[in-house]
Amino acid sequence: MSLDDRKLEVLRAIVEDYVETQEPVGSKSLVERHQLGVSPATVRNDMAVLEEEGYIRQPHTSAGRVPTDAGYRLFVDRLSKVKALSPAERRAIERFLIGAVDLDDVVHRTVRLLAQLTRQVAVVQYPSLARSSVRHLELVPISTTRLMLVMIADTGRVEQRLVELPSPVPPDDVTDLRRRVNEKLAGQKLADTPPLVQGLVDDCSPDSRATMACLASVLLETLVERSEERLALAGTANLTRGGVLDFQGTLRPVLEALEEEVILLKLIGDLEPSTTRVRIGDENQIDNLRSASVVSTGYGPGATIVGGLGVLGPTRMDYPGTIATVRAVARYVGDLLAQN
Amino acid sequence: MSLDDRKLEVLRAIVEDYVETQEPVGSKSLVERHQLGVSPATVRNDMAVLEEEGYIRQPHTSAGRVPTDAGYRLFVDRLSKVKALSPAERRAIERFLIGAVDLDDVVHRTVRLLAQLTRQVAVVQYPSLARSSVRHLELVPISTTRLMLVMIADTGRVEQRLVELPSPVPPDDVTDLRRRVNEKLAGQKLADTPPLVQGLVDDCSPDSRATMACLASVLLETLVERSEERLALAGTANLTRGGVLDFQGTLRPVLEALEEEVILLKLIGDLEPSTTRVRIGDENQIDNLRSASVVSTGYGPGATIVGGLGVLGPTRMDYPGTIATVRAVARYVGDLLAQN
DNA sequence: ACTGGCACTCTGTCGTTACGAGTGCCAGAG
DNA sequence: CTCTGGCACTCGTAACGACAGAGTGCCAGT
C-alpha cells in the first residue's frame, strides 16, 4: 500500500501542527487549520493508514497523533522545502561574524550565533587538524632542556606542546633545529607528515640525534596521534524551552552526552557528504539521544571542508528552518575562513 | 537573644539531615537521628527561636524546617570543620593529574576531576594573563603583508593574533622585528607592558615606524585590553541530580548563567583572599543563581595565585566535603604548575 | 471514495475525604 | 528557670469517584 498525495499532505500537516503546538493533533483541528478539502472522518482514515505504516502514533487511545521518527524522516526527505532566511537573519549573521579577530573568536561567535538563531544547542568543531597543513613550526626555548613546540596550521589553529630534551641544547642549535624541521614539514598535510618526521631523525648527525628523536616523538604525537579535535558548545539553556516535555522527562542523558566530546564529534564530525545531514532520534546511534535530533553540515573555505558544525534539539523541531540556518551559517563561516 | 550551644547543635543537625535527605526535617526525626539528649518538644522550642532569627524556615505550616541561606552561612562559618579527604580521593586526584601534557590538558583534566569528585558543576579559569609574564613573542609571516603574532606566557598560555601590515615586509625585517620586540618585552609582566610597547614605536626608525605601530596596536590589544580570560566547564549533567527539586523548578536560569563567561569569572575569578570562598544563594549577586552556591579558591604555583577554580551546586550542598575537595584539587594543580 | 453519525475509550480535572506529619502552646515536673 | 509530655490545630498529599472533553473506529448512506 503506497501513500497517495493526500495522505502525505496529512502527514505534513500533522508534523507542522505538532511542532508548533507541542500537542498531539486530532483530525478535527487538522481540517480546521489546513485547507485539506475533506472531512475529519476521511482524515481519520488516512491517519489510520499512516499509523499502520509507522509514520505517526497515538500516545494513548483517544489522544491525537504524534509523528514518529520515521514520520519526521519522511517529512524531511520529501515533504519540506528549505525555508529562505529572512533578511533580518542574514543581517544578524553578517553583523555577528565580521569583526572576528582570530580563529577562537570566529568559532565562539559562530557557535553563539547558531544557538541564538536556531534557539537550540549549537556545536562547532574547530578546523580539523587531520585536514590541515603545517604553516609553521616554532621552537621556543623554555630552559636549556625544555622547548615549547608551537604548530601553526593553515586553518589558523595553533597547538602547543612541551618537549623535554634528553640533554641541554644551546640556542644556536635550536635555531638549526627549527630551520630543519620547517624545511621538511612546512606546507605539508598533517596526515602526510609521519614518514617525513622519520626522515628528519634519519638525516640527523649522530650527536644531535637523541634530541631530534625526542622532538620527533612529540611532533608525531601533536601532529597525528593526539591530533585532538576541539569543539565549542553553546545554547544548552535552550534545552529547557518547551518545559521538560521534550526529552521525556529529564535533561540528564542529553547533558551527559553533550559533555562527551567523542559523542559530539561523531554527531557533527562525520564529514563525508558535503550536504546537510539530519539525524532523527534513534538514527544517531546514541542511547542518551533517543529523543534528540541533530542537524549538521561541513564548513570550510570554498568547496573544501575543514570541520563540522550543527545543532541539537528535540525531535520535535522546526526542521526546514533549522536546516536553512545551519547551511547559511556554514557558508558564511566558510567565506570568512577563505579570507585568511 | 544569643544562640546557646544546643541551638547551634540543632541547626547543625538540621543542615546535615536536610542535605542528606533533601526533605524538610522535623523535631521528632531529629532527636531520633542525633544524640541531642533532649525531647522533641525542647527541640521545637529551639527551632522556633532559630526560625525567628532567620536561620531556618518552614516551607508550609506543618512541614519540617529547612535551612535558610543565613543558616547555611552560619553552618559553614562556625559549625563545620573541613572533612579530611579519603585516601581513595587523594589517589584519584593524583592519578587524574599526572600525565597531563600541556596547559589545555591540565585544565581539562582538572575540571573533569573536580566535577566528578564533587558531583557538581566545576569551573576552572585558565591562568590569568593579567598575572602572567611574557615568555616569548613569535612572529610568523603568513604572507608579505600578514603576520601571525604568537604570545607565550610563563604560565604556559599561548595566545595568537593575526596582524595586517600596512605595507609588505621582507623576512629579514620580520627577524629584526621579532628581536626588538622580545628584547623589550620578554620577561615582563603583561600588566607592565603598555609603556614599553609605546617605547618600541618611539625608538623606531621612520621607515619601519608604520609597521611597528601596527604591530604595537595588536600587541596592546592582545596583552592588555582584550586579555581575555578563558574558562573550562564540566559536570553540567550533575545539575539534574536530586531531580528538579533543587533550583526551584527549572534549570534554565542556572544554565543561562553558566553560559556567560563574565558571570562565571565574577564567581570564581575574584582572587583577593587566598582562602577558600563560599557564596551561598543570594550572596552571589546574580539573580539567576538565587538557589545556587559556589565554592571557589585560587590556585597557582607555590603561594602565588594565577587563576581561580570552583564548583557550583544547589545551596543544599555538602559544604564540608566540597570545600575540602576544592582545596585539595587547587593545591595539586598548583604543584603541577610549579613543575613547569 | 467520501461523509455524517454514533458509541466507546481514555485522560485530565475537580471536589471530597482521610490521613499523617509536624507544629505551637500550656501545664506540670525537676 | 528549663525541660517534658500531652493535646488540639494546620495543612499538604494521597486516594477516590464522578465528569467532561477530545478523539477515535466503525458503519451505513450518498
UniProtKB/TrEMBL annotation, chains A, B:
Question: What keywords tag this UniProt record?
Answer: Repressor, Stress response, Transcription, Transcription regulation
Ranges of residues in domain Heat-inducible transcription repressor HrcA C-terminal: 104-323
Pfam families listed in its UniProt record: HrcA, HTH_DeoR
Keyword set includes Transcription: yes
The answer on whether this UniProt entry bears the keyword Transcription regulation reads yes
In this chain the HTH deoR-type domain maps to: 17-62
Record-linked InterPro entries: DeoR_HTH, GAF-like_dom_sf, HrcA, HrcA_C, WH-like_DNA-bd_sf, WH_DNA-bd_sf, WHTH_transcript_rep_HrcA_IDD
Which SUPFAM superfamilies did the record assign?
Answer: GAF domain-like, Winged helix' DNA-binding domain
Q: Which domain of life is it from?
A: Bacteria
Described purpose of this protein according to its UniProt entry: Negative regulator of class I heat shock genes (grpE-dnaK-dnaJ and groELS operons). Prevents heat-shock induction of these operons.
Q: Which family does it belong to?
A: Belongs to the HrcA family.
This chain's protein is named: Heat-inducible transcription repressor HrcA
Give the organism the record lists: Paractinoplanes lichenicola
